[in-house]
Design brief:
398 residues; alpha+beta; Immunoglobulin-like; Cytochrome Bc1 Complex, Chain D, domain 2; 2 domains; six-stranded mixed β-barrel; two-stranded antiparallel ribbon; 17 strands; globular; binds heme C
């Protein structure tokens, strides 16, 4: 422990001067970070970075009750820490949640709290990062997901809880019972922990071949969750070095959140303190956005953006296009700019086909998704102003 502490303090000193204020500074250690738990003392020596999680309001859900429970969500303030060694990187996300919700295996109407850590497969060009929700065509992400679930016993491994063994049906005593209990505990499903590669909502593919080694854990206390993910710096999907982007999502079970109904951060840069590289990425993701917000707002109205998009105060909720109420919270400036000049570069996946079968968000032409939004080849100044305005669209932090 003392060794880890000294190592972390030393790297904090190196980091403090040069780095942008809101990059996550991953401190280096020579200890085995796979041994960390969300409540390990070692985390108290790592530097915390404040991030904000915004209600994702891209798609309108079919579930009325869930919509009502999330109608006036504020943004949440969360804290992130990171530690790495030669092999692995560990993230700790702390986020407020007033109620501990745990999913019960046998009830489909009870939703568990959960969180996800998302990493882009390619991040060389900071202006071409994947769609923040779940990656997009040609821009995949790796997602590590952990949900709070109640342990259930599934001895046959098929999720058939009704078939579970009952100790009362066994004529066992003393030592036998202990041995029996141990056997049953080994078969228990105590965790919902998954990794995915994804290029959009309907393309989430679970990585099941064991090639994606990661571990995750959650601990609840003081009206907040601590969630930890530990994964390799390098494997067949990802190569994390110097600096790279990460994004976080949380689900609040008490608000019936699941799937796309969640809280979402934007891409946040991580700097592996002591490693070279990644400065361009950190700079690009932390630079303040320049532009005339008032003029941007006028341009958005003049160009008819509000004819399709919901922008609070300017237009009514609509299924024609993604809701932009929180777009400034989770989209980068580069993404917003690209969305305006080249809407088909990243096509927002997974629109609600049930709600608007006649107004699709995209059409498939020659196997490629083409956005229903027309491109707007505007001049640089207009684009700067519009992007500056769109970046102001986000819920208040509470
Ligand atoms: C004809 C309807 C229409 C108009 C007009 C329109 N859009 Fe869009 N927009 C869409 C659709 C549909 C999508 C989703 C498909 C895609 O990603 O291109 C979209 C996507 C977007 C996105 C990405 C949203 C996300 O959640 O990632 C942004 C940002 C955006 N539009 C901004 C604008 C701005 C700014 C204007 C005005 C200059 C505008 N749109 C005009 C239909 C429209």
């Amino acid at each position: 422990m003392t060794k880890l502490k000294t190592a972390l303090l030393a790297s904090t000193l190196i980091a403090s001067s040069a780095m942008a204020s809101n990059a996550i500074l991953a401190q280096k250690t020579n200890k085995d970070v796979t041994k960390l738990t969300p409540t390990s003392k070692a985390w108290s020596y790592a530097k915390a970075t404040t991030i904000h999680l915004y209600p994702q309001t891209t798609i309108t859900f079919n579930d009325k009750k869930a919509l009502e429970a999330n109608a006036n969500n504020h943004a949440k303030e969360a804290r992130v820490k990171a530690i790495y060694n030669g092999k692995n990187v560990a993230f700790l996300l702390e986020w407020p949640d007033g109620t501990k919700s745990v999913q019960k295996g046998y009830r489909s109407d009870v939703y568990g709290d959960g969180f996800a850590v998302q990493l882009p497969v390619n991040y060389k060009d900071p202006s071409k990062l994947p769609y923040i929700g779940m990656g997009s065509d040609g821009r995949p992400v790796v997602i590590h997901l952990q949900k709070a679930v109640q342990p259930i016993y599934e001895p046959n491994g098929k999720g058939n809880v009704g078939m579970q063994q009952n100790i009362l049906s066994k004529n066992k005593f003393g030592k036998d019972i202990k041995a029996y209990n141990k056997e049953v505990a080994k078969l228990a499903v105590t965790d919902y922990q998954r990794s995915f590669v994804s290029e959009g909502f309907r393309s989430m593919t679970e990585i099941k071949d064991g090639s994606e080694k990661f571990s995750a854990d959650m601990a609840y206390g003081n009206h907040a969750w601590k969630g930890e993910v530990v994964r390799p710096l390098k494997d067949s999907y990802l190569k994390l070095q110097g600096g790279f982007p990460v994004a976080f999502a949380t689900w609040d079970g008490a608000r019936m959140q699941r799937d796309g109904l969640k809280y979402l951060s934007g891409w946040v840069p991580v700097k592996l303190v002591g490693q070279r590289g990644g400065d361009k990425l950190v700079e690009s993701l932390t630079a303040p956005v320049k532009g005339d917000v008032e003029n941007g707002k006028n341009l958005v109205q003049q160009n008819g953006c509000t004819g399709c998009h919901y922008i609070p105060g300017l237009s009514q909720p609509s299924t024609m296009a993604p809701g932009l109420a929180n777009i400034g919270g989770y989209a980068t400036a580069a993404y917003l700019r690209e969305s305006i000049v080249d809407p088909s570069a990243v096509v927002v996946p997974g629109y609600n086909r049930n709600q608007h079968p006649n107004t699709p968000w995209y059409n498939v032409v020659d196997g490629k998704r083409v956005s229903a939004m027309p491109p707007y080849p505007l001049d640089d100044k207009s684009l700067d102003d519009m992007v500056a305005y769109l970046k102001t669209l986000k819920a208040e932090v509470k």
